[in-house]
Task: inverse folding
């Protein structure tokens, strides 16, 4: 920058100051930022108002547009505010005025509007020439006593008028109505609260200045939004009140109703604060049309002047819980970010709940002190005048004679002061007295008024001399405000059940999970498979590729955590819904994308973790006849890569798993139709890395097919199914207890037509049996259609297996209550 000023006149050169450009830009930006922060965007902690709101209310106060006056055109109010106090655009002033009249924006509206001031659908207010307004009664409480020198005034923008720097504010408006605004480099977002709760907390703080945020929260439960709805969880509220910042989850109020024809509907009656209702309904409709939200048949907005009512009708059979969770995830829940930033002594500060109330109490203490000083001065002046009147009445004849004989009023006042020692003010008042005030009745009234004024002087003096008395006045006035304006809380606070997760969006239903030897896996709803008669071929349950075969099928609930045991002795933890849902004819998805399986590793047994208690055991059986028990707690922490369930010897495989409690009998069945039953306690509990002990003595070429746990009181039957689709039921009581590691007893004949045993299950007559063949055929049938026979029999046809196919897996499903129709059984071949 050049510093040469030789060409300038001397008087100009003296005023030139050389500065660095960056320094000037920095200071100018700071000045601009502070102007925006203090003059437009942030509320004052004392009255909770920004300058525009304060100026609107003060302009209405000066014009007498109170709650007792008639409504005035909004354009008139905006014009007065803009012309006298707020030299900005009329639209911004009108927007601020309209917001103070919106009962969905302000918890306690400060303006009583008449006309269209906007709606929760985002509709803008009508033009200011069409709407009318006046102050709401509660707004007058913010201005009460403003004419008694309670607050400081400053010159308006053109030095023509005086405007208040802050309003007296008879209640903590910052917390009661909240505020929001964006300044330069900072923003504020203060939620509204219930008036009664905030006043109770203020009184608590006055009584106990050391009260903690926790103690104040016994009164202020949380924000109280004008639109109601629900706050989810209390931790975020505490954080916001403790630090001045927090993120509060606000959830719509709704309920699921039973509707006609067995259908359901979701009715929304309250929305989160600052939600645009029309836009939300439109977005829900878009999700339905685009297939993002399934199960919805109709969507209607039935809202009226009485409140919000949005009806979402569901299709028959739609899962209301899933639709509800989808709505919560995308539409019915939003986060309110609390930033309790306000101006304190002209500087922006983030305040805790306690600090906010402390600043308000300090402001109110100053207002009451200044008001008391003002009223005391007024009372003392009045007492002085009354003293003069009383003295004049005591000497009424002399006073009347003196005034009558005076040349004029001025000389009369002079003589009164000289003769009776009146002050100039007293003498002025006496010469202006009417003759009627000399009556005895008027004299008595003056004496009574003087006594009242003296009492008022004593009261005001006590307030000014005693901090406790001053605080008592503040508390009493707050209680009066509460009695006049407080109402019930609108926003409920509900316990935090966690955010809506992907799991919440999955219907909770029973499914079949199918896995092939090449590790393709999928799940299918059980309802896709209706019960059929015994001996049917079934329907396609999986389209396996060439050289692949179904390895296992099992039933699970989509929300179950499963322990998946493999033939290699590993165990994995899996959530059922993580398995992709596919149609009957789909092959499935490679399991390596879900479980970290090794080549040739197949799932052979499933345990639902809900069935695994603290004092229970996981009991395993291997193909070579070994059995072991391991405490269930050893399977609590399972890595994504799985953990060892049993240390198998070379050539052995894990076949089946049961959950036991230490009091059961174990039944081991082999592929050649042998079974052995022995006490569980004969197998000691051991660690996961142990191999186990011998359970059954196998003949050459035989192998274990399955494991069942039972006890003496078990009335179930042992269901045995063979590879060629034959099966039978025999009461478990027919299998006597032996010692472990014996050859066992004959259960079913496996020569000829039956083929080797595929699986054994413990069943009741009401259960359903699900069989799946290696080629993907699946059949579901009632267990009671399978004959109840003795041991060492052939059994009956359970599934019609085609040539070259075989039963791969068997699972048991509890019968659905709706299964009423029973298919006719086929003739049973003799044993």
Result:
């Amino acid at each position: 920058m050049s510093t040469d000023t030789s060409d300038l006149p001397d008087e100009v050169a003296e005023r030139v100051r050389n500065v660095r450009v960056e320094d000037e830009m920095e200071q100018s930006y700071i000045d601009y930022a502070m102007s925006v922060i203090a003059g437009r965007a942030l509320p004052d902690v004392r009255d909770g108002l920004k300058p525009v709101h304060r100026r609107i209310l003060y302009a209405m106060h000066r014009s007498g547009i109170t709650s007792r006056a008639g409504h005035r055109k909004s354009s008139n109010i905006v014009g007065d505010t803009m012309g006298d106090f707020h030299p900005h655009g009329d639209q911004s002033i009108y927007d601020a005025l309209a917001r103070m009249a919106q009962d969905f924006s302000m918890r306690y509206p400060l303006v009583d509007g008449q006309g269209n001031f906007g709606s929760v659908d985002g509709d803008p207010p009508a033009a200011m020439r069409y709407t009318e307004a006046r102050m709401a009664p509660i707004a007058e409480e913010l201005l009460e006593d403003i004419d008694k020198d309670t607050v400081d005034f400053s010159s308006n923008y053109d030095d023509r008028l005086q405007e208040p720097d802050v309003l007296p504010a008879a209640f903590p408006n910052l917390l009661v109505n909240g505020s929001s605004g964006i300044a330069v480099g900072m923003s504020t977002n203060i939620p509204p609260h219930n008036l009664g709760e905030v006043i109770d907390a203020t009184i608590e703080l006055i009584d106990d200045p050391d009260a903690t945020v926790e103690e104040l929260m016994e009164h202020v439960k949380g924000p109280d939004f004008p639109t109601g709805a629900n706050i989810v969880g209390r931790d975020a509220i505490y954080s916001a009140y403790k630090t001045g910042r927090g993120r509060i989850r606000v959830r719509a109020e709704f309920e699921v109703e039973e509707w006609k024809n067995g259908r359901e509907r979701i009715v929304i009656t309250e929305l989160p604060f600052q939600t645009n209702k029309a836009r939300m309904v439109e977005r829900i409709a878009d999700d339905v049309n685009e297939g993002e939200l399934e199960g919805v048949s109709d969507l209607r907005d039935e809202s009226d002047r009485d409140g919000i009512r949005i009806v979402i009708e569901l299709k028959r059979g739609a899962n209301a819980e899933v639709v509800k969770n989808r709505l919560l995830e995308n539409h019915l829940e939003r986060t309110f970010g609390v930033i309790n930033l306000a101006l304190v002594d002209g500087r922006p500060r983030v305040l805790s709940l306690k600090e906010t109330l402390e600043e308000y109490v300090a402001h109110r203490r100053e207002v009451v002190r200044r008001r008391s000083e003002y009223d005391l001065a007024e009372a003392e002046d009045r007492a002085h005048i009354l003293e003069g009147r009383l003295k004049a009445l005591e000497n009424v004849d002399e006073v009347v004679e003196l005034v009558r004989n005076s040349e004029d009023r001025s000389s009369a006042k002079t003589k009164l002061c000289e003769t009776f020692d009146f002050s100039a003010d007293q003498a002025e008042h006496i010469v202006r007295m009417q003759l009627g005030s000399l009556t005895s009745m008027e004299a008595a009234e003056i004496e009574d008024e003087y006594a009242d004024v003296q009492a008022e002087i004593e009261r005001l003096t006590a307030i000014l001399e005693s901090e406790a008395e001053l605080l008592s006045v503040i508390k009493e006035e707050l209680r009066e405000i509460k009695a006049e304006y407080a109402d019930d809380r609108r926003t409920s606070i509900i316990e935090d059940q966690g955010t809506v997760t992907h799991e919440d969006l999955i219907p909770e239903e029973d499914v079949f999970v199918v896995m092939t030897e090449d590790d393709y896996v999928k799940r299918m709803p059980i309802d896709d498979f209706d019960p059929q008669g015994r001996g049917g071929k079934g329907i396609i349950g999986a389209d396996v590729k060439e050289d692949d075969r179904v390895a296992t099928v099992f039933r699970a609930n989509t929300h179950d955590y499963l322990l998946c045991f493999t033939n290699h002795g590993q165990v994995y933890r899996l959530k059922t819904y993580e398995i992709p849902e596919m149609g009957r004819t789909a092959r499935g998805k490679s399991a390596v994308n879900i479980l970290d399986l090794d080549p040739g590793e197949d799932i052979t047994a499933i345990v639902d973790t809900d069935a695994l208690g603290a004092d229970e055991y996981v009991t395993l059986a291997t193909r070579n006849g070994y059995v072991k028990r391991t405490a269930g707690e050893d399977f609590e922490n399972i890595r994504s890569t799985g953990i060892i369930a049993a240390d198998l010897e070379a050539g052995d495989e894990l076949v089946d798993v049961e959950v036991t409690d230490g009091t059961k009998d174990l039944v081991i069945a082999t592929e050649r139709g042998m079974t052995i039953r022995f006490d569980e306690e004969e197998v000691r509990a051991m660690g996961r890395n142990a191999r186990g002990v011998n359970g059954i003595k196998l003949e050459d070429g035989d192998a274990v097919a399955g494991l069942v746990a039972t006890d003496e009181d078990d009335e179930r039957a042992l269901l045995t199914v063979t590879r060629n689709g034959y099966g039978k039921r025999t009461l478990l009581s027919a299998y006597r207890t032996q010692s472990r590691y014996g050859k066992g007893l004959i259960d079913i004949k496996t020569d000829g037509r039956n083929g080797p045993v595929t699986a054994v299950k413990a069943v009741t007559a009401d259960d359903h049996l699900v069989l799946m063949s290696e080629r993907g055929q699946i059949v579901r049938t009632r267990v009671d259609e399978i004959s109840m026979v003795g041991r060492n029999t052939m059994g009956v046809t359970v599934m019609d297996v085609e040539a070259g196919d075989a039963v791969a897996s068997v699972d048991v499903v509890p019968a659905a209550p709706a299964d009423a129709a029973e298919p006719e059984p086929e003739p049973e071949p003799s044993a």
Observations:
- Residues 817-831 have pLDDT under 50 and may be disordered.
- The longest strand covers residues 550-557.
